[in-house]
Amino acid sequence: MISTNPIRRATRPIRQEAPTHIFTIGQAVRLRGGFGKLPQHADIYHITRMLPPKGDSPQYRIRNDEERHERVTTQDSLEPVDMSRSGSGATLIERTFGHG
User: Fold this and answer.
1) Please, what are the domains in the chain?
2) Strands (DSSP E) along 1-100, which ranges?
3) Which of 16, 17, 43, 91 lies in the 20 to 30 Å Cα band around 52?
4) Ordered per-residue pLDDT tens for the chain, 100 residues
C-alpha cells in the first residue's frame, strides 16, 4: 500500500545577515558607468548618510557640492574615487592598475 501523505520535516527559516555598508560618511564616490574617463568635479559625490538596504544592496544618501539636493542610491551603483589621483597626469594603465 502506498501512502499519499508526504513526510513533513520541521525546517527553520534561514537567517540572512544584513548587507554591510562598504562606504563611509564623507567618502568621495561617483555613480558607476563612466568607464575610462577621469572623474570631473561635477561627477563626484560625498556620502552624507547610510540608509537601510533596498533588497540586497545597502543604500546611501549622496550629495554633489554643485547641486542643491541630495540623491539616494544603492551601493551597487557607486564606486570609490581616489581624490589624490583624480587630477594627476597618470596614464590610463597607471590609473587602472596602479603604479609599479
Assistant:
1) 19-82 (2.30.30.390)
2) 28-31, 45-54, 57-63, 70-74, 78-80
3) 43
4) 565 666 666 676 666 677 899 999 999 999 987 556 665 666 899 999 999 999 889 999 999 989 999 999 999 999 999 876 555 555 555 556 665 5
